[in-house]
Amino acid sequence: MEGLGIVNYWIVVALMMTGLYVVMTANNFVKKIIGLNIFQSSVFILYISIAKVSGGTAPILTSEAEIYSNPLPHVLILTAIVVGVATTALGLALIVRIRSAFGTVDDHEVQDVARD
Amino acid sequence: MIAIEFLVNFTLLGFLLATALVISRTNRLFQSVMLFGIYSLLTAALFVVLDAVDVAFTEAAVGTCISTILMLSALSLTGSRREVAMHRKSPALALGVSIALGAALAVGIMDMPEFADPNAPANLHVAPYYLTESVSEIDIPNVVTSVLASYRGYDTLGEVVVIFTAGIGVIALLAGRTGKRDED
Q1: Domain that holds residue B66
Q2: Band of the pLDDT at A21, cuts 50, 70, 90?
Q3: Which of A41, A91, B76, B88 has the least CB density, counted as fewest CB within 10 Å?
Q4: Is residue B139 situated within a structural domain?
């Protein structure tokens, strides 16, 4: 496809910047986890964009198709999505634990409580 | 001529960017979590357009459903509704770091091969081997399955170990939490 260039990759960069910004500016820990997930899925989109082949179809072999997209990045990202959810679950469990130890899930308030 | 699938691709990417920007602006947490659910679903739709059907339904099932449910549970367990606005950090530094990251990535992206290029280096290495040989070697028409379960089987085993470890971590963190909660 001529002329489409690398727009996908530019949007991936923009999503990654947004994710990092949310992680850094959010006070609430749950919001930080959301930012982390945005950051993470921008990487997924990067890999899946690389795997796309013009005119190709999903890599399930049939007699009707000739060109297939690259299956290897799909496998890597399949693994990454599941691991990502596992780490999200662990992060959220830590947040619940922080709530019962400090009585708050706000970044600044936790620091204030820890200082006292 | 731009094929319809590329048009859908760019539309979905636009929606994704808009959703992410709204998430970064809002301070209501429930709204953020719901928008994140939409964001995941849009990602899943994008993966279908980009021919990654297996990834798409994993994202729809695991990313959209389970992540959103976990975040909603965390919100209800911590009882938080919105971010405390008075503590809002000055965004200048964060913006600066984000832009620095964006600039560094932009330099890298300049060298990327054209989107959907069949002759991109990533598509010329082992992928043709998997596509031509996997049926005779493993006899499963879905190439993603044969790579996941056979060629890269140890990778998947490692993934299972990671999930198991995370599960143990969650149980260890949350065990006995209900008894303690009455004190605060």
Answers
A1: 1-82
A2: very high
A3: B76
A4: yes
How many whole angstroms separate alpha carbon B19 and alpha carbon B28?
14
Backbone angles phi, psi at A45, to 5 degrees: -65, -35
Q: Smallest Cα–Cα separation from B23: which of A36, A96, A85?
A: A36
Is residue B95 in a domain? no
**Is B15 inside any structural domain?**
yes
Count the domains in chain B: 2
Instruction: Tell me how far apart the alpha carbons of residues B147 and B156 are, in angstroms, rounded to a whole number.
Output: 10
End position of a domain, from candidates B82, B104, B134: B82
Those residues whose C-beta lies under 8 Å from the C-beta of residue A107, and which sit 6 or more positions away, are A26, A27, A28, A29, A32, B87
Per CB-CB distance under 8 Å, the chain A contacts of B98 are: 17-18, 20-21, 24
Quote the pTM value: 0.90
Q: Nearest Cα to B55, choosing from A41, A11, A66, A68?
A: A41
Residues 69-88 of A with CB under 8 A from B: 69-75, 77-79, 81-88
Tell me if A53 and B116 make a contact (CB, 8 A cut-off): yes
Check CB contact under 8 Å for A13 and B106. yes
B90-144 pLDDT tens trace: 788 889 999 999 999 999 888 888 888 888 888 888 888 888 888 888 888 899 9
Please list the alpha-helical segments (H only) found in chain B: 4-25, 29-49, 53-58, 67-78, 91-109, 127-137, 143-146, 153-174, 177-181
Are B8 and B78 in a shared domain? yes
Domains in chain A (CATH in brackets) are 7-52+70-115 (1.10.287.3510)
B144, B163, B177 member nearest A74 (Cβ): B144
